[in-house]
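Need residues for this backbone.
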């Protein structure tokens, strides 16, 4: 019996080694080199392309010209939610949260226009692509904060005096944050913006009460966020550039039924510069 147990343990160990040494990729720099089966269930589809850490260069630009940034990708890595301090004399601080959403958080396949002003100000404007993702973050106390991670309509500008994209280029600007829920969404009481009940039918006598007015009157509010894109790596031979980003935006309001939380998101980004045809 003891020999049989040792044999079973040995076979299990061999099987584990074979599995670990299989040809399933763990990390790659270029997803285009992989097949669908090699990417499936690995999380690689949620990763932005990477540039070598040793790449340092510049992408020259001509003033008065416009360019296109293709394959723009943002990969969030850290989430923070502003919480009220225990002591009222202290300022509110951002509390790190745990991501509950699976590997569907990155914004990718986006395009943006890049214009160069006569004063050397670079203006980056996001145009289209997969520029939004619903995300849920859980705080240490158990509270869950849903948000609409996005970069819709982002318009970021640099300081004056630039004639290239380099490791000193920072784009800062604002973007729009659409409602987390659509106008056709119904809450658990059957209330919505364009359809559903006007109030909770379980409380007909209190339908017009001020206590329930905010929950009864639904609205798809448009929020506003700010973002900073800091370029840290440039590959002049391919036109690629990458770096880190930090954004602050409001969370979901349950169609106006509650106040939005202030959320800070940090991560990495990637893009490729091309001349406008």
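Answer:
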């Amino acid at each position: 019996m003891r020999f049989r147990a040792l044999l079973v343990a040995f076979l299990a160990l061999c099987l584990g080694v074979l599995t670990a040494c299989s040809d399933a990729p763990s990390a790659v720099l270029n997803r285009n080199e992989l097949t669908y089966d090699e990417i499936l269930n690995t999380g690689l589809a949620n990763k932005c392309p990477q540039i070598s850490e040793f790449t340092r260069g510049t992408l020259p630009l001509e003033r008065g010209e416009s360019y296109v940034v293709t394959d723009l990708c943002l990969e969030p890595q850290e989430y923070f939610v502003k919480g009220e301090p225990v002591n009222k004399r202290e300022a509110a601080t951002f509390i790190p949260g745990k991501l509950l959403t699976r590997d569907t958080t990155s914004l990718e396949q986006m395009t943006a226009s890049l214009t160069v002003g006569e004063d050397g100000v670079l203006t980056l404007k996001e145009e289209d692509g997969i520029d939004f993702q619903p995300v849920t973050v859980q705080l240490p106390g158990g509270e869950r904060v849903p948000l609409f991670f996005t970069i819709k309509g982002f318009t970021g500008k640099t300081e004056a005096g630039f004639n290239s994209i380099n490791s000193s280029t920072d784009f800062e600007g604002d973007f729009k944050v659409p409602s987390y829920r659509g106008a056709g969404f119904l809450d658990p009481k059957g209330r919505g913006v364009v359809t559903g009940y006007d109030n909770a039918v379980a409380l007909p006598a209190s339908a017009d009460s001020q206590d329930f007015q905010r929950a009864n009157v639904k609205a798809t509010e448009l929020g506003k966020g700010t973002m900073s894109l800091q370029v840290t790596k440039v590959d002049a031979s391919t036109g690629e550039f990458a770096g880190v980003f930090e954004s602050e935006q409001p969370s979901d309001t349950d169609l106006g039924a509650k106040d939005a939380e202030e959320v800070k998101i940090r991560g990495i980004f990637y893009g490729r510069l091309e001349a406008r045809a």
